[in-house]
Design goal:
The complex is a heterodimer of chains A (about 270) and B (about 220).
Chain A: H1 2-23, H2 68-71, H3 89-105, H4 138-156, H5 165-168, H6 180-184, H7 187-196, H8 210-227, H9 236-243, H10 257-267
Chain B: H1 9-36, H2 38-41, H3 55-61, H4 66-69, H5 84-91, H6 102-110, H7 130-135, H8 140-144, H9 161-169, H10 192-202, H11 208-211, H12 214-217
The chains are: A mainly alpha (about 270), B mainly alpha (about 220).
Chain lengths: ~270, ~220
Amino acid sequence: MLITNLQARPVVLLLCLVAAGFGAGCRQDMQDQPRYEVYETSPFFADKRASRNLPEGVVPRGYLRDDDHLYLGKIAGGAGGNNTGAAQQGGAVQTSQTAEQNIVGGRLDTNNAVASPGSASTQSDPNNVDTFPFPVTEEVINRGQERYQIFCSMCHGLTGYGDGMVVRRGYKRPTSYHDERLRGERVGHFYDVITNGWGSMPNYAAQITPRDRWAITAYIRTLQLSQGARLEDVPEAERRQIETGNAPVLPGGQGTHENESGARGEGNR
Amino acid sequence: MPQIFHRSTNALSKLSIVVGALLAVGAIFTLLVLDRSNYNTGAFVDVQQPVQFSHKHHNGDIGIDCRYCHTAVEVSSSAGIPPTATCMNCHTQIWADSPYLEPVRESWRTRQPIQWVRVHDLPDFVYFNHSVHVAKGVGCSTCHGNMIQQPLVHQVASLKMEWCLECHRQPELFLRPKDQIYNAEWQPPSNQEEVGLRLKKQYNVMTAEVLTSCSTCHR
């Protein structure tokens, strides 16, 4: 009896191994569980999308747009006490709200959120605010620089002259930020253009969050300030370095403290 | 009673034990190798897509940041596949008549999303989150390889648990500075372990005990 057991043992072991080999990977129930992953197809819906758009009128947590200054960049008559646009107020605000609602309703199907280029307005809204909805700190400027380089520099160029790579490849050249008209625009205008598009520029409402749009606006102001700077704006101690041509080149066009305080001042003027 | 077996069978029987053992070991080894092979894991197999989109061109030649399209990578578990609208940001004017882009324009016209083919498919019992990885110093190319060299996207990793654990056991070998996360061509410096340990502390990366705990990735 003992001998038989000993003889059978390797055979049983080998059989177990072979069975394990054949059995492995036969069932994928754990790998593919009966639930939907992001972007998975679903045979249940006519358009085969498991990720559904929110029903109309639903406001997801964190998407309540109850602050016009922050979310629209517009206040009736603008923040500068300019009332000339009061008559247009209704229409202008309506347009912006539609775009905002599209972000809410169309986060997964952002086809909805983009107005076709060319349909955007071509005259800046007099209701645009001229102040930032939150304090512009160094952190905000740095965030703006990062977001600007991701989303804007492709066309507007790293310094804002409108010579980005996509423009060099044939896209319509945007107006330079250092153009007289754009230097005089209110900050709400830049927010408005990012949110709703302008001329050939599509809107970036689906790609950039409202706070980031303001951060980018602050960085655009920084660029305008730095590109329009005169020698007198440089602290006396560092002026000599520029005159002798030994000025240190900052990596990636890092905003200096000089720029930052300037942008803040300009934003709050 | 005459002997049934010839004397030489003694040697043969001894030999068969050795050969049998070697065969068993060989079989197990082969199974393990096959399991890890690119044939099984799908690594380095180019995946054909409905549009001939090239990361090499868009990211490498043009220099578009990963986050221009994968906007959710910093805030969500999924990095996000861009909607057709993102393609049309540029392609209303650039290559607007190209036959290669007809599937994109068709999607734009019909408002039906492009059906991209998934390249990286983790088992459903793994809960991977992009945002925590990029926030803690793991760059895109650590898992996805150099996208600038991938006209067609393929996996560069086995996506096996042992591969995940390589980093979860010793994250310091892979962590990089925040400004290098989206650099597809980043290479670890010669003193990576030293830098990595510093970054690990700076980013408050959990201990290996926590990172290798079952419930970190499985729920």
